[in-house]
């Protein structure tokens, strides 16, 4: 997988597909990586090229440290470095917050936004605080249990590799990003997101409930909901056919 320089540091990413239209994906927190999007990248519609940025694994830290704000600036630098013209950007969970910040910072730069099982704020999110404290107290020891929260049913053939990769992620980076996430409120930023936006909600997501999705829909002017009735927090892995159908329809309509 290739590496590109963004803000003077190497950033690793995965890519697949071909064509002039582009979509850039961001993974979530707690040691997630571009592998989360591997299947989605390979299944993109004809004419689309997909990219998935690695932030915890294989890439260097942003120059100003790990936070959702610095990762949003990385998105802009990544798009500029590759010369992508009005790409769609999309993010899962923490990556969805990164996408909200990036899209609100540069409303005319992106052709669309995909927000997967995420929300605008976590200031009162009990589970997020509990898991952050677990990281602080126990390091990587409980990442298997933490990772299990992201799936309604553990996906055979994917989960073990997911956990193994997460256990190699820098602990301080995971803690710093999660802490920044808990203190970030994107609600004032949502009206600035003018690009068409797809909000994906997993009906069995215990961490990001329908209230989180409704806040995004109410705040982002040109947004719509894709409900995944059989999915938990990670529909691109849990219910890939339903996720692809919603994503592809959005991409084709957006462009």
Structure description:
The protein is α/β, with parallel strands linked by helices. The chain has one domain (3-254): Rossmann fold (3-Layer(aba) Sandwich), CATH 3.40.50. It contains ten helices and eight strands. It has helices at residues 38-42, 68-82, 94-105, 126-138, 143-148, 159-166, 171-182, 210-219, 235-238, 240-254; strands spanning 3-6, 9-17, 21-26, 48-53, 88-92, 112-116, 197-202, 223-228. It has an eight-stranded mixed beta sheet with strand order 1-2-4-3-5-6-7-8, with helices on both faces. A hairpin with a 2-residue loop joins strand 1 (3-6) and strand 2. Helix 4 packs antiparallel against helix 7 (171-182). The longest helix has 15 residues, at 68-82. It is globular and about 45 Å long. The model has no long low-confidence stretch (mean pLDDT 95).
Any descriptors?
39% helix; alpha/beta; eight-stranded mixed beta sheet; 255 residues; 10 helices; Rossmann fold; globular
Mean pLDDT: 95
- Residues in helices, as a percent range: 25-40%
Compute the number of structural domains.
1
What is the CATH top level name? Answer: Alpha Beta
Strand order of the largest sheet: 1-2-4-3-5-6-7-8
Oligomer description: single chain
Which structural class fits the helix and strand makeup? alpha/beta
Q: Helical segment tally?
A: 10
The ordered H/E elements are: EEEHEHEHEHHHHEHEHH
Q: If you compute it from the alpha carbons, what radius of gyration comes out, rounded to the nearest whole angstrom?
A: 16 Å
Major sheet: size, sense and barrel closure?
A: 8 strands, mixed
Query: End-to-end distance, in Å?
Result: 28 Å
Describe the global form.
globular
